Amino acid sequence: MQNRYVWAGISIAVIWIATVFVGVFGPTLQIATPHQISVPVLAMVVSAFALISTIFIAVFGFRK
Questions:
Q1: What percent of the chain has pLDDT over 90?
Q2: Is 33 helix (H, G, I), strand (E, B) or coil?
């Protein structure tokens, strides 16, 4: 196993662990309607960027 594969895997894992922490501890958008709605907007934005960065890391990190 090459060192590059290990670092690419660790990088992807750290990205998604950080995304989980943002989802759990990050702020939410609360909308006052007859039914209280709470949307984790920051978690959705961070997860979109995490997906894009995961694709780039996977393409360039696991390529032979």
A1: 62
A2: coil
Interatomic CA distance for residues 13 and 26, integer angstroms: 19
Residue 42, Cβ density class (10 Å: 0-12 exposed, 13-18 middle, ≥19 buried): middle
Cβ 40 vs Cβ 23: under 8 Å: yes
**DSSP letter at 30?**
E
* C-beta atoms surrounding 8 within 10 Å: 19
Question: What are the pLDDT digits (tens) for 13-36?
Answer: 999 999 999 999 988 888 888 888
Q: Where are the domains of the chain?
A: 3-61
